Amino acid sequence: MFQYAAAAGSQSSNILGLVGPFVLMFVVFYFLLIRPQQKKTKTRNSMLRALKKGDKVVTIGGLHGTILEISDDIVVLRVNDVTKLTFDRGSISHSVTTEADSK
């Protein structure tokens, strides 16, 4: 009877020894990969929501322009005095601010 209890105790520690490294790896991956990516996505989504008419932006393709019209999913950019281009809202990479705009 004592042998059975000792065997059951060693099996549970053996399972913890096998599962423990996987749990530790998941925790490390979470803090090094998953959590920073979630923060980056959250800040990008808040930037896209905050876009407004007149903002200077850069698209994912590197095109610079000023927002003329904006809706839920479409953005119309003025590239120069004559050219207007239509993009998906998600294709905006970032908003450009200059020192003159912030003053």
UniProtKB/TrEMBL annotation:
* Biological-process GO terms, alphabetical: protein transport
Its protein name is Preprotein translocase subunit YajC
Membrane-spanning regions, if any? Answer: 15-34
InterPro entries on file:
Preprotein_translocase_YajC (IPR003849)
Q: Which family does the record claim for this protein? A: Belongs to the YajC family.
Primary residence: membrane
Q: Which residues form a coiled coil?
A: none
UniProt subcellular location: Cell membrane
Quick one: a GO cellular component term?
A: plasma membrane
How this chain sits in the membrane, per its record, is: Single-pass membrane protein
Instruction: Name the source's superkingdom.
Output: Bacteria
**Alphabetized UniProt keyword annotations:** Cell membrane, Membrane, Protein transport, Translocation, Transmembrane, Transmembrane helix, Transport
